[in-house]
Design brief:
The complex is a heterotrimer of chains A (268), B (271) and C (298). By secondary structure, chain B is α/β, with parallel strands linked by helices. Chain B has 10 helices and 10 strands. Chain B has a single domain, classed as P-loop containing nucleotide triphosphate hydrolases (Rossmann fold, 3-Layer(aba) Sandwich), CATH 3.40.50.300. With 298 residues, chain C is mainly alpha-helical. In chain C, strand 1 and strand 2 form a beta hairpin. Classes of the chains: A mainly alpha (268), B alpha/beta (271), C mainly alpha (298). Chains in contact: A-B, A-C, B-C. The structure holds adenosine-5'-triphosphate and magnesium ion. Adenosine-5'-triphosphate (ATP) binds next to helix 1 of chain B.
């Protein structure tokens, strides 16, 4: 007994030592990797020396924000919200059939399942900016490109989570409704809709909130919204105008986030 | 009256779950189906209201052949059969009242169903039934806020408001503690008597079956191997049902293991 | 006993039933629905685009797609003829790599380097911010400042910071790193702060009762409890930073995004497609690697 416990203690010690060694190696590796990466970036050290001063300088030129300019950003800000809302609606409309294909228990066959999964991955792994560039080429500069970029970017996210929700549906409950003699539509209304509705609303609102943020940047490539205005101000070196826009974005984004969190707390 | 003739079901997987089962259920009797796991009890119940489509045979409910109906006609007939599930089959996020009223879905229009607008008679009946199963005042609770026993009683209420000609019950007590199990069985017996409808129950616990049933049917390997009154179920009959050639299911069936099997010869006797 | 309960037996029950609502009453419910509907319709009307523009777009969409294929990675296989029994048989003999391929490669390396440096710096500055944003560890005013930093970092997209730094300061890859560092606390400090708020206070008290200074309490009473989580979150953030780093170049902040936007400007769509596919590949590899690494840590 006694020898056994000593032995296990020794083993534990050894395990502990190996673990600790592993940790140091990992830490060393991370530091080394960071150093090599830093070298690869070829940063001029003069930049680093002047950076704090430049930052201060920039802030001085930004402050105070230009209040007289504020009314001018109302329209692009509204356009930003419009893009987020309509983009999300469009994404939902497209995501429902994709989710249907991508859920194991509703997809018609193996190939449709593969198709669903492919569409989800394709949409998710292309950044909204890339979608925006593509749609600006196709439809020209403006809101339409922005809406489509936001929509195509969101489809994968929504479809993935909705399909997971569909896969978790309680089949017995649906059968029970069917067994009362309800037709397909009523079965859906009483058996399926209540099971997926809260998640569906929650996800949509959550995605909308993300999309407000994304809609602030797609303007950099011409896809409408406040980003286009911001780009113009920056190009004119109108820094107090830039600060005005940044504050406006801050207010709108934080408000959307709070609203989205509140709604998600309400539905369950 | 329910009359089943030579019912057979072979699943796509090749499993022969039912191999020709015939049975009649009528009046206000409580019929208990017992048998080892995998004997085909659930399949049988589900083949009656066509949740599972049988491969062969006939199911007559008051002289209507259920196996050959069009989808629309089948839906109309399903309104006449109340079904109660082992896992309750409640929609968690709906209220108790919505779950109960869904028993009337076959009678209301799509639009009214959408608006939760049911006829006053249906609502009264639903309230009365909830009272009857001991859940009066719980209408507005969500189904997932209830205990297992309460949930099963909501499931029963949903079946009762259908005003069915028969109740089909699949393992109503398997997910419940002994006390709730008895309460549920008491309730089902009471409904059979008062509403004057037959109740067909799949049940694992033999003792419960013997206590409550008017008639016991023993299933083994997709066939009926025993049919008779509860007091006819002796050791021989248990052997037939639980050990008659289906050794594979022995481990899955704890009850017979408690009896001393050496004392009696395991002779699978036909009734 | 005949049949079910006679009608008279339940005539006393209320025949009305209404689904309870999360709103105060049904009137409020329908009002809310109406407001939401009006809001949605207002949005759609605001951006209403004539259908013909959409339809015309579809034509050019097809044109764009066809001009993107096949993707051109700038790598080609050189074939040389070899005499086999009097016939010329073409045999692959070498890989030809042109400038496009080199630009793609170095852009990708820069992207990865940016993400690594930014994650390292970002984690280092996120930790103190997380402590500031943990309600149970710091006095109220400090907490408010901590939360404010997190909110600003979350609300401003890294691309917004990137474009300002690029124009304001004028440096490429470093601008990208700054943008990513700026955005990191919004994720890392926020989640770490939530974990700090959940820690077991008795361990903290035990250290404090030995007369340790607040810094020592953090080091010995708090840090061990959240270390695995911090590592997991850092790996996760690295994954996110890789994604972000691939597109920062679009506004001139270094990395593969730079190469991508130039290819579009040159109408070199086959090359653009190659870049997009490379980005997707790197992003997916990063995602898988991060998921595996996080599982190892936990
Ligand atoms: N959906 C299905 N697909 C394929 N085979 C099935 C299906 N459902 C049941 N089976 C098979 O049919 C046979 C009978 O199953 P059934 O569920 O009817 O048995 P049971 O008597 O209800 O058992 P238990 O007491 O475990 O509920 C089993 O062999 C089972 O594997
Ligand atoms: Mg069963």
């Amino acid at each position: 007994m006694a020898t056994e416990s000593i032995e296990t203690a020794g083993e534990w010690d050894r395990f502990d030592r190996r673990e600790r060694l592993l940790r140091y190696v990992a830490l060393l590796g991370t530091v080394l990797l960071t150093y090599v990466s830093w070298q690869a970036l070829n940063v001029r050290y003069s930049y680093l020396v002047t950076a704090p001063e430049m930052t201060l300088n920039l802030f001085r030129r930004m402050y105070p924000p230009d209040a007289t300019y504020a009314p001018e950003i109302v329209a692009p800000m509204i356009a930003t919200i419009n893009i987020a809302v309509v983009g999300t609606i469009l994404a939902i409309v497209m995501a429902i059939p994709v989710a249907y294909l991508g859920a194991r228990n509703t997809t018609p066959n193996r190939y449709t399942y593969g198709l669903g999964k492919f569409l989800i991955v394709a949409s998710r792994s292309v950044h909204v900016i890339i979608w925006a560039i593509v749609f600006v080429i196709v439809f020209g500069t403006g809101t339409l490109a922005g809406i489509l970029a936001v929509a195509f970017r969101s489809v994968g996210f929504l479809a993935k989570l909705i399909s997971e929700e569909i896969e978790e549906i309680d089949r017995t409950a649906v059968e029970a409704v069917e067994a009362t003699g309800a037709n397909g539509l009523k079965t859906m209304l009483y058996g399926i809709v209540p099971q997926v509705k809260p998640a569906f609303i929650g996800l949509s609102v959550y995605r909308w909130d993300i999309n407000v943020r994304e809609a602030t940047i797609i303007g950099f490539v011409g896809a409408g919204g406040i980003g286009m205005e911001l780009q113009t101000r920056i190009d004119f070196f109108d820094w107090s105008g830039v600060l005005t826009i940044l504050l406006a974005i801050l207010v709108v984004v934080i408000f959307s986030e709070l609203l989205s969190a509140w709604v998600r707390g309400k539905v369950r | 009256m329910l009359s089943v003739e030579n019912l057979a079901k072979t699943y796509d997987s090749g499993d022969e779950a039912l191999k020709g089962v015939s049975m009649e259920v009528s009046g206000n009797e409580l019929v208990a189906i017992i048998g080892p796991s995998g004997a085909g009890k659930s399949t049988f119940i589900r083949c009656i209201n066509q949740l599972t489509t049988p491969t062969a045979g006939s199911v007559l409910l008051d002289d209507v052949e259920l196996t050959e109906l069009s989808t629309g006609k089948l839906r109309d007939e399903r309104r006449n059969m109340g079904m109660i599930f082992q896992e309750y089959g409640l929609v968690d996020r709906l209220t108790v009242m919505e779950n109960v009223l869904s028993g009337r879905l076959g009678y209301v229009s799509m639009w009214n169903a959408f608006r939760r607008n049911f006829p006053a008679d249906d609502v009264r009946h639903a309230r009365a039934t909830l009272d009857r199963v001991g859940l009066g005042g719980m209408e507005d609770k969500r189904a997932d806020e209830l205990s297992g026993g309460q949930r099963q009683r909501v499931g029963i209420a949903r079946a009762v408001v259908q005003r069915p000609k028969i109740l089909l019950v699949d393992e109503p007590t398997s997910s419940l503690d002994p006390e709730s199990s008895r309460a549920v069985m008491d309730l089902l017996t009471e409904i059979a008597r008062e509403d004057d409808i037959p109740v067909l129950i799949n049940i694992h616990e033999v003792e419960l079956a013997l206590e409550y049933a008017d008639r016991v049917v023993g299933f083994a390997d997709g066939r009926i191997v025993f049919e008779g009154a509860p007091d006819e179920v002796d050791e021989d009959v248990r052997d037939t049902i639980y050990r008659g050639g289906t050794e594979g299911s022995l481990e899955a069936e704890p009850e017979p293991a408690t009896e001393s099997d050496d004392e009696r010869p395991a002779t699978p006797t036909e009734r | 006993m005949s049949g079910e309960l006679a009608d008279s037996e339940f005539a006393s029950y209320d025949g009305e039933w209404e689904r309870p609502t999360v709103f105060y009453n049904t009137a409020v419910k329908y009002l809310v629905y109406a407001v939401v509907l009006v809001f949605l319709v207002w949005n759609v009307v605001n951006v209403w685009v004539p259908i013909d523009r959409l339809l015309r777009g579809f034509g050019s969409a097809w044109l764009l797609v066809t001009s993107m294929f096949p993707p051109d990675f700038g790598v080609s296989i050189v074939v040389t003829p070899v005499q086999v029994g009097g016939y010329n048989v073409f045999v692959p003999s070498a890989l030809a790599v042109d400038n496009d391929a080199l630009r793609l490669w170095s852009g990708m390396i820069e992207t990865l380097a940016m993400s690594i440096v930014a994650t390292a710096i970002g984690v280092v500055i996120s930790v103190p911010i997380a402590v500031m944003a943990a309600e149970n560890l710091v006095p109220r005013p400090v907490y408010v400042v901590g939360r404010a930093i997190v909110s600003v970092s979350r609300a401003l997209h890294e691309l917004v910071i990137g474009i300002i730094v690029v124009v304001g300061f004028g440096f490429g890859a470093l601008a990208g790193v700054i943008a990513l560092v700026f955005a990191t606390p919004g994720f890392l400090a926020k989640l770490l702060a939530e974990d700090l708020e959940d820690i077991d206070p008795t361990q903290m008290d035990a250290i404090r009762s030995t007369g340790a200074s607040p810094i020592q309490v953090l080091l010995y009473g708090v840090a061990p409890q959240v270390m695995p989580r911090l590592i997991g979150l850092s790996i996760y953030r690295w994954d996110i930073n890789i994604r972000a780093a691939t597109i920062l170049g679009v506004v001139g902040a270094g990395g593969i995004g730079n190469v991508l936007i130039r290819s579009f400007d040159r109408y070199d769509y086959q090359y653009s497609m190659a870049i997009i596919l490379s980005i997707i590949a790197v992003v997916i590899v990063g995602e898988v690697a991060s998921a595996v690494a996080r599982r190892r840590v936990q």
